[in-house]
Specification:
elongated; 2 strands; two-stranded parallel ribbon; mainly alpha
């Protein structure tokens, strides 16, 4: 039950050394392909992490993918189903950026510098011009509310 020694490459036979090496490599590959190794016998089934779908689920997924390419549902995006959007407005910043309203504030600033009660707003047209600018802004915001239906809060600080 003694195993014979493995063949060795030698110069004492009539076959060239390179051919002996080539034959040894071919025999090694042949034995590797025919014999079953330890790992080949113990092949385990891999866990499938991807969910397998039946025909109904595949059809539903296909319809969902088609819907993604369509126009989005803006009521869901803007949350119009729960409550109307709220718009907060800083009144004086809007007045000073909007030329139509800014001219009233400029008039208020010019008229407050003259007169006996300068800067007090009593008896001068400065408070009237400022009030006019605020009223115009509030009126425009009310129109926006009527058009869009948004809740609008205007703050004059």
């Amino acid at each position: 039950s003694q195993t014979p020694p493995p063949p060795r490459v030698t110069t004492s036979i009539n076959i060239p050394v390179r051919r002996q090496i080539r034959y040894a490599n071919l025999k090694k590959e042949y034995l590797k392909s025919t014999s079953t190794s330890f790992r080949a016998n113990n092949i385990k089934k891999r866990t499938a992490y991807r969910k397998t779908l039946d025909e109904e689920e595949m059809e539903a997924a296909k319809l969902e993918r088609q819907k993604r390419g369509q126009e989005p549902d803006w009521d869901v995006i803007l949350n119009a189903t729960a409550a109307t959007p709220l718009m907060l407005v800083d009144g004086y910043n809007v007045i000073y950026q909007w030329s139509r309203l800014k001219k009233w504030m400029v008039k208020a600033g010019q008229s407050s510098g003259s007169g006996n009660n300068a800067g007090t707003g009593i008896g001068s047209s400065s408070s009237g011009s400022m009030q006019r600018a605020r009223d115009l802004l509030v009126r425009d915001l009310e129109e926006l509310h009527n058009i869009k239906g948004w809740r609008i809060e205007c703050v004059f600080d």
